[in-house]
Automatic annotation (TrEMBL):
SUPFAM superfamilies per the UniProt record, alphabetical: ACT-like (SSF55021), Chorismate mutase II (SSF48600), Periplasmic binding protein-like II (SSF53850)
Protein's gene: pheA
A single MF term (Gene Ontology): chorismate mutase activity
Keywords, in A-Z order: Amino-acid biosynthesis, Aromatic amino acid biosynthesis, Cytoplasm, Isomerase, Lyase, Multifunctional enzyme, Phenylalanine biosynthesis
Domain ACT residues, every copy: 286-363
Domain Chorismate mutase: 6-98
Cellular component, GO, one term: cytoplasm
Protein name: Bifunctional chorismate mutase/prephenate dehydratase
SMART domains: CM_2
Domain of life: Bacteria
Main location: cytoplasm
Gene Ontology biological process terms from the UniProt entry: chorismate metabolic process; L-phenylalanine biosynthetic process
Site (Essential for prephenate dehydratase activity): 267
Domain Prephenate dehydratase positions: 98-274
Amino acid sequence: MTEEIVSSDRRLLELRNRIDEIDGDIGRLISERAKCALEVAEVKKASGEDVLYYRPEREAQVLRRAMERNEGPLTDEEMARLFREIMSACLALEEPVKIAYLGPEGTFTQQAALKHFGHSAQCRPLAAIDEVFREVEAGAVSYGVVPVENSTEGVINHTLDNFMNSNLKICGEVELRIHHHLMISDITRPDAITRIYSHAQSLAQCRKWLDSHYPNVERVAVASNAEAAKRVKGEWNAAAIAGDMAAELYGLKVLAEKIEDRPDNSTRFLIIGTQVVPASGDDKTSLMVSMRNEPGALHDLLEPFRRHNIDLTRVETRPSQSGNWTYVFFIDFKGHRDKPEISEALKEVGACASDMKVLGSYPRGVL
C-alpha cells in the first residue's frame, strides 16, 4: 500500500470521526430545542388564555435568521427547509397543526403545505377550494392552503371569490417554484403515446414544449395533476404531466424533466385561518375593496397608497356578487397594517370605498 493511500485513508477516518462528533452535537441540540418547546407549551397553558401554538410571525423570523446566518455550502432555501422540519417536529410536541389543502394527494398544493408547515403537520386533502374554506371556518382544521396565482397563467379566481363571503384571514403565503415532468407508468409504451393528461394550467404552462415534442398527441385536462398521474397507471398509451410528489406517490417513471416553458414558473399559495398575525418585520397586507360606480373611483382608491409611498404588489378586479357591472378590487402591498403610514392609508381608502375588508397582514413568503 502506497504512502498516498495510507494518508488518504487516515484523512477519511478523521473526517468521519469529526462528522460523528458533529452529529452527536446536532442531536443533543435538537433534543434541547424540543424540551424548550414543551416548556413553552406549559407556559402558554398556565396563562389561562386561548393558546396559539403556531405563530406565523415567530416562525418567519426564525427562518430568516437561519438564512442570514447561513455560511454555505448549503443554499439558503435548503437551510430554511431543514429548520422548518425541526420547528414542525417541535410544534407537534406542543399541539399537532391540522391543515386542509386543495387535493388530492400529490398536488403542488400539498407540496406547498408541507413546505410551509413541515412533515409533522396533519394534512388533509379536500376536493375543492370552497371545501377548504368551509373546513377552516367550521374549526375542523386550524389552517387551509389554497393556490391564488401563477406567474405565467395569472390569478386563480375561485380563491379570490371565496373571500367575498368569508370572514377568514390570510395568515401567510408560500411561493413554490413549479417544475413539470412528463411521466409514464410501467405499462406505458413510450413510442405509442396518444394522449397526455394534466391540469389545464399545467398544459398551458408546457404548451410550447408539447407543441415541439408531441404536436399530434391529444391533451386531456383533468381536475389535478395527481389525478392525471393516477389515470396513467392503467393506460398503456397515455402519459401525464405532474410534479415530483405525484411521480413518487404513484410510482411513475419520469420521461422528460422540467418541461415548463418558463424556468421561473412559480405559484403563490395562501395560508388561511382565523388569527390576526402580528408584524414579523417583513410583511405583506391583502385588502378587498368595493368602490362606488362613479368617475375617478379607481384614482381615489389608489391615490392614498401613492401619497404614503406604499408599494403595491398586485391589483386584481373581480365582478361583485351584489350587482351587475360592479366590481371588487383585491390589492396586495408591502408592509403590515399596524405601521402608521399603512394604517393612515387604510383609513383614507375606507372613507371613499363603499366597503373595505382587510384580509390579513402576514409574513412575506420566499422561494
